[in-house]
Amino acid sequence: FEVNYDKLRDDDxxxxxxxxxxxxxxxxxxxxxxxxxxxxxxxxxxxINPTSLPLxxxxxxxxxxxxxxxxxxxxxxKLMGKLKLTTTSGxxxxxxxxxxxxxxxxxxxxxxxxxxxxxxxxxxxxxxxxNLEPGDKVELHFQLENLFDSDYDYGDISGTINIQLDxxxxxxxxxxxxxxxxxxxxxxxxxxDEVVLKFTVPTKAESGDYVMDIxxxxxxxxxxxxxxxxxxxxxxxRKKDDVRIETLVVTPTEVSCxxxxxxxxxxxxxxxxxxKHAALTLVNTDLGxxxxxxxSLQKGTADDNFETKQVTLDLANKLxxxxxxxxxxxxxxFNSYSDKKVINLVV
Length: 347
Fold this sequence. Notes:
- By secondary structure, the chain is mostly beta strands.
- The protein has no helices and 25 strands.
- The protein has strands at residues 2-3, 14-24, 31-38, 45-49, 52-55, 60-70, 76-87, 92-101, 105-114, 117-122, 127-132, 137-146, 157-165, 174-182, 187-188, 195-200, 208-220, 225-236, 243-251, 260-269, 275-284, 289-297, 306-314, 323-332, 336-346.
- A 5-stranded mixed sheet has the order 1-8-7-3-5, with no helix packed on it. Strands 9, 10, 12, 15 and 16 form a 5-stranded antiparallel sheet that branches. It has a 5-stranded mixed sheet with strand order 11-18-17-13-14, with no helix packed on it.
- A hairpin with a 4-residue loop joins strand 17 and strand 18 (225-236).
């Protein structure tokens, strides 16, 4: 029996259901068949029509099971009771009567942002988010719809959305959760009310495919459960050569009479390859800064895949007031450009 609560209105406590069942006599003689119900679940009121009938050999006939079911049954397949069938020839059989309660909460779509840029719209289970890189910041924006009619008094739904990814090669667990509430007949589909969950791809994540579990666990005002389980396939693609300026710090960021400045740069290898010929340049010609340093870096999944460099600048007293951008550039193979950051020094 498909049970869909979208027909409920006002303060309904029961929902009418019916199902047609076909009986076929595969024997060689007419049978008198008797039908009955037993072991009914609490709150279920079902009847059979007819309760007895003759059925000739090779013939078929429909019977109807109808009645009312309560409105607090959880989503999913539930045993309502059993149909007992007996015949004059001595056959006695029991058949399960199941309800398939439909969820009244639906994920309309999930909008995925990577590094604050819209990347993908997902409207079904088992989709794939491709080409993530270590360090990427991901946001999942969930838009939900309550399928109860707005006139139904007990149709408000509240619950939680949880995302989980647990894989040793991902090198960091993802486990984020947030709660929500959506009134009967309403949607959460704007930036102000949609549910947003976040995770960052670990810097040591191996290239490969990973499975993220998405689970919604909710209840309506009748305390009936509505659950949704999706998976999102996440692909991490680590570049072969990927040397980045991870941090660039100037201390202090503003100078006046005291003219000594320290520039600290952290260079990190996020790539698949180790880099025997990595390089860093720091440049601002007005400050007299034109430095290049060369060094080696272990591959991106190693613990020692970074190098920190520090430079001290003694600024001339005659240096004019103003803003001076210091440009840090990272290279592999000595001169192959990889990344750049800029920080301002104010004099």
